[in-house]
Amino acid sequence: MNRHTPPPAPAHSANAFLAEAGALLGTRGLTTEPDRMDAWLTDWRGRYTGRAMALASPATTAEVAALVRLCAAHGVPIVPQGGNSGMAGGATPDASGSAIILSLRRMNAVRSLDAEAGQVVCEAGVILQTLHDAAEAAGMRFPLTLGGKGSATIGGLIATNAGGTQVLRHGTMRAQVLGLEAVLASGEVLDLMAPLKKDNRGFDLKQLLIGSEGTLGVVTAATLRLLPAPVGRATAWVGLGDIIAARTLLRRMERALGDALEGFEVVPAHCLDSVLAHQPTARAPLAGRHEWNALIECVSPTHDSGALREAMEASLAGALERGLIADAVIAANDTQAEAFWALRDGISAAERAIGPAMQHDISVPVEKMPEFILAASPAIEAAHPGTRAVAFGHLGDGNVHFHVLAPPGAVRGVWEEGEGKAVSAAVYDLVTAWGGSISAEHGIGQMKVDELARLHDPAALAVMRQVKQALDPDNLLNPGKLLTA
């Protein structure tokens, strides 16, 4: 039996539960049919596959609350799930088949949008792209985006405290949440939806729930902040000789562009080569091949695109004169800018097509990140001959995706469970030694639960377990995720 999960309910109890749950949710809201459940039993990366007693899809907060009370009465574990696009197996049930998947996808209403106040109220199942479209229609924007915006849901983004490519300026999902609604393990509805700028009535419970990965409560709705739609945008692709130069360029652009600087992504040559090979229609932005590339984006609600491009061009020209960069191109229009971003967003899929890999979502202080990459990459490759370490992503906020590709000929599924685990342990040891975090934006899920227990501060872990025990004493909310028993 998995030590992280409650014991399975007896068959007679399971049958009784399913009968009551079916009466509560109806045929649209509850299914045990394999054909309707199979797609939601495996995580996006294909690393984890589980079993479930049923797939529950409530349509309202009241139904979620009633279902959670029913699960508590029968001792049925709950695995909350949004778009099933997580990177750490946090929304996948275990192999026991004792849990239900609680899908929030039917709760997909944008309840209200107030452009003047800069606020939107939406349910947990709203897809990020849908929110972007709704905000744009109102002349506003939601300042968080990522490659999976077509499937990721608001509830999942809150549960994992997602990051994305705009954290440099706007912060993680935690910074976007003004209010929250959630169902606790008891079935009580926690209504914290009021967007109060000041509230000193004790603990900030909404912040406790953000990033808790469904282990403390089920997020059902949120009040989120919106910003005015940008008037201007400037996007550049820059070729660099090394990662140290990328950090120097970042600081230069911060001084020159100030708050307009919204994204600063680094892409090594190997990653760009992989995307170009994987996407036949993709084109390299620059004529030559460069060991490192930077994707830089500026937006402004007041300055037009021409003014932003001029400021960016002046800063890049100065960097070129000083030998800091080798080449650069500024997107002529939004279509070209989106083509640049498609190269960045296509890295994960392109590398997955190459073969097995261990993906690590890590952070260290921005000032240490280049040196970390230069030290960690050869260390891992030397310790595990035939592997290839590549780092890419959000240099501006100290978070890179440190992937270690398996040796040629490695068998997918076998290598990850064998040598791959030793690779990850070594990476996390290095990250911890450099004062970093083993999870920057994707969460812990089940992928990193043992590593968190091994490496995190014991006092912090003790407090987290005490909070879990207080809010979910029977360990029914997403058991086996985030914390060990």
Could you walk me through the main structural features you see in this protein, from its secondary elements to its overall organization?
It is a single chain. The protein is α+β, with helices and mostly antiparallel strands. Among the domains are: 110-228, Uridine Diphospho-n-acetylenolpyruvylglucosamine Reductase, domain 3 (2-Layer Sandwich), CATH 3.30.465; 232-347, Alpha-Beta Plaits; 355-392 and 399-440, Alpha-Beta Plaits, CATH 3.30.70.2740. Helices cover 38% and strands 20% of the residues. It has 18 helices and 18 strands. The chain has helices at 11-29, 34-37, 61-74, 128-137, 154-160, 167-170, 173-176, 205-209, 243-257, 269-278, 305-321, 334-345, 347-354, 369-383, 414-417, 419-433, 449-455, 458-471, and strands at residues 30-31, 54-56, 78-81, 100-103, 110-114, 119-123, 140-141, 177-184, 189-192, 217-225, 227-228, 232-240, 261-268, 292-300, 327-330, 357-363, 388-394, 399-405. Strand 17 and strand 18 form a beta hairpin. The longest helix has 19 residues, at 11-29.
Compact description:
The model has no long low-confidence stretch (mean pLDDT 94). The chain starts with 10 loop residues before the first helix and ends in a 14-residue tail after the last helix.
Which key terms come to mind for this protein?
Alpha-Beta Plaits; 4-stranded mixed beta sheet; 485 residues; 18 strands; 38% helix; single chain; Uridine Diphospho-n-acetylenolpyruvylglucosamine Reductase, domain 3; 18 helices; alpha+beta
Give the strand tally.
18
Mean pLDDT: 94
The appropriate CATH architecture of the domain at 110-228 is 2-Layer Sandwich
State the secondary-structure class. Answer: alpha+beta
Given this structure, which CATH class of the domain at 110-228 is correct?
A: Alpha Beta
